[in-house]
Design brief:
The chain is an alpha+beta fold. It contains five helices and six strands, in the order αβββαββααβα. The strands form three sheets. A two-stranded antiparallel sheet has the order 1-6. The model has no long low-confidence stretch (mean pLDDT 80).
């Protein structure tokens, strides 16, 4: 029981990240997208892609545009116009609305928004503040 309480206290006091910056409208986040069929499993086959399209109609906006070095499929959004603007901006999916999503596990492991993205993340406190 003590271990569980200690875990909760540490979780509440752990660093929180804040998303800062703004979109530069480069369209990079709409190209070479990784989609996930489960929490941490990227889509690697067209059959998996067909399955996730059944769960959410917004996935119909994507098409397979390649593979990365790990064999995961890369996707591009059909709604991106020639000026890097979203043609369905007001009706875009939840994933698009949250990009770049604040995912603590991803950030702790060195993840960051795409190169050239105007967004970035910072901890809400400096490391020295946690030591005080």
């Amino acid at each position: 029981m003590f271990t569980y309480i200690k875990f909760l206290i540490q979780k509440l006091q752990s660093s929180k990240y804040i998303r800062k910056g703004q979109c530069k409208k480069c369209g990079a986040c709409c190209r070479n997208i990784l989609l996930y069929s489960d929490k941490d499993i990227p889509v690697k086959t067209p059959a998996q892609f067909e399955q996730i399209k059944k769960w959410d109609r917004h996935f119909e906006n994507f098409y397979i545009s390649g593979k990365n070095e790990t064999g995961a499929l890369l996707f591009t959004c059909r709604a991106l116009d020639d000026n890097n603007r979203c043609k369905i901006y007001l009706l875009r999916g939840f994933g698009c609305r949250q990009y770049p999503k604040k995912n603590t596990k991803f950030l702790i492991n060195g993840g960051k928004p795409l190169d050239g993205c105007g967004y970035y993340f910072e901890p809400d406190k400096k490391f020295d503040d946690y030591l005080k």
